[in-house]
Design a protein that fits this description.
By secondary structure, the protein is an alpha/beta fold. About 35% of the residues lie in helices and about 15% in strands. A 7-stranded parallel beta sheet has the order 8-7-6-9-10-11-12, with helices on both faces. Strands 2-1-3-4-5 form a 5-stranded parallel beta sheet. Helix 9 packs parallel to helix 10. It is elongated.
């Protein structure tokens, strides 16, 4: 049997391992660290990598695959891949945008509503018998009609804003440049944005450029009634400052799908009743994950057939 030309790296499920093997003849590795253990002839034959994970994929790892031409990332965020290293080596990088926008935006709105209306606590109130034994739960907070700021009005940020407009919310945003909107308010910096809104929804790309973008100063500007929702990357928020603010009551709460050091997140989060916690599954529906896998494989198939990749990053 000839050596494979495609290497799949990461924790793929059966939904994708079958098609990767069937359509691309891919062999699989759990991690980038496993590349060095492959025989020289196998490494030399790899022209494409299907990548799924958050462990760094840098130039040193790429150099172990001397004929690598494309790294197809599973997900819209590709911050684990050193794109500059790939570009310097003539390696194309792709991702899977658009197909996951709806699910991620839906979860952002769900976390915002769950935090404001205390959905998790209300469910526990019923299940524990407190409703029958202790009466009505304490009143929650109205979300509709509030002022919301979107940090990063890209594809996903726009979907979130469109949804929240349906909740009669006053939409504010910050982005690299002012966008064409239906009259939403632009802020040139996140501190100004935070000071103008009740809710702050973070929809930035990950990576060094956005690390700590939602800083302690931004969190202070949001104020004691403010709520932060993050569906981007844990790195985009100063997590220590966020925890301090939540514990002290300097802000009212948060809805978080992403964290530093996930899945082993800071234990301080577990003690907070004001935070909705989710396991980084913004795109976690069967339909969307299937579409993400298909787009990843389509990018590889296009490259190997000598065609332009569908969703290039570089």
């Amino acid at each position: 049997m000839s050596n494979p030309t495609t290497l799949a790296i990461g924790q793929y499920t059966d939904m994708d391992t079958g098609p990767l093997a069937r359509d691309l003849g891919a062999m699989t590795l759990d991690s980038v660290s496993g590349i060095a253990g492959l025989p020289d002839a196998v490494r030399a034959g790899i022209t494409a990598v299907a990548f799924k994970g958050h462990v760094a994929f840098d130039g040193a790892a790429m150099d172990l695959l001397p004929n690598l031409g494309v790294i197809a990332n599973y997900g819209v965020g590709y911050d684990a891949i050193n794109v500059a290293d790939a570009t310097a080596r003539g390696i194309k990088v792709t991702n899977t945008p658009d197909v996951l926008n709806d699910d991620v935006a839906d979860l952002a709105v769900a976390m915002l509503l769950a935090q404001g209306r205390r959905v998790v606590q209300a469910s526990d109130w019923v299940r524990s018998g407190n409703w029958a034994n202790s009466g009505e739960i304490a009143l929650s907070r109205k979300v509709s009609g509030g002022r919301v700021g979107i940090v990063g009005l890209g594809r996903i940020g726009r979907e979130i804003a469109d949804r929240l407009a349906g909740f009669k919310m006053d939409i504010h945003y910050t982005s690299r440049s002012e966008k064409q909107t239906p009259g939403w308010t632009y802020h040139a910096d996140p501190v100004s944005l935070a000071g103008a809104v009740d809710y702050l929804v973070v929809a930035l790309v990950g990576g060094a450029e956005t690390a700590g973008y939602v800083s302690a100063e931004v969190i202070r500007a949001l104020g004691k009634d403010g709520v932060i929702v993050n569906i981007s990357r844990g790195s985009t928020i100063d997590e220590a400052a966020l925890l301090d603010a939540l514990e002290s009551g300097a802000i009212a709460g948060a809805g978080l799908d992403v964290f530093l050091n996930e899945p082993k997140i800071d234990a301080r989060f577990m003690a907070l009743d004001t935070v909705v916690l989710q396991p980084h599954h913004g795109s976690g529906t069967v339909d969307t994950r299937r579409a993400m896998g298909q787009l990843q494989r389509d990018n590889i198939a296009a490259f190997q057939a000598g065609r332009a990749v569908l969703t290039p990053v570089n």
